[in-house]
């Protein structure tokens, strides 16, 4: 929260002593509480879909789609997700998305054999054009 308290320029965070760093598990529990609007201690698929469409999830989650994310949060297929299942599922999804991102970065930075050959041939062509054959 960035609002100032009593015009003193102090944020709510500074006044309450809240840390700027919040452990991932706490972030998950806070998000769970936002989605569990009924306060039952579990999230229905309808609650999850509403939150998914209104809370602007990260791009990786959007790419998966709400059905796929909910399926991972509810691996038993009960139709409801507990707080612990939510935390565990979200951490698992985040780990998967990080691994996919790292793999795509590695693949993007590693030249294919064809790219390596093309680069080598270009280098040889440039070398050949720089050699003075008139001597």
Structure characterization notes:
The protein is mainly α and 135 residues long. The protein has a domain at 21-108: Orthogonal Bundle (Recoverin, domain 1), CATH 1.10.238.10. Helix content is 64%, strand content 7%. It has a two-stranded antiparallel ribbon with strand order 1-2. Strands 3-4 form a two-stranded antiparallel sheet. The protein is elongated and about 70 Å long. It starts with a strand and ends in a 5-residue tail after the last helix. Residues 1-18 have low confidence and may be disordered.
Describe the SSE topology.
Elements: E1 4-5, E2 10-11, H1 12-16, H2 24-35, E3 42-44, H3 45-54, H4 59-64, H5 66-73, E4 80-82, H6 83-109, H7 113-130
Helix pairs in contact: 2-6
Offer a few descriptive terms.
135 residues; mainly alpha; Recoverin, domain 1; two-stranded antiparallel ribbon; two-stranded antiparallel sheet; 4 strands; 64% helix; elongated; disordered N terminus
CATH fold naming of the domain at 21-108: Recoverin, domain 1
Poorly predicted sequence stretches spanning 5 or more consecutive residues: 1-18
Number of helices: 7
On the 0 to 100 scale, the average pLDDT is 77
Largest sheet: 2 strands, antiparallel
CATH architecture call of the domain at 21-108: Orthogonal Bundle
Order of helices and strands: EEHHEHHHEHH
Strand order of the largest sheet: 1-2
| Proportion in helices | 55-70%
Shape: elongated
The CATH class designation of the domain at 21-108 is Mainly Alpha
Q: Report Rg.
A: 26 Å
- Span between N and C termini? 76 Å
Strand content: 5-15%
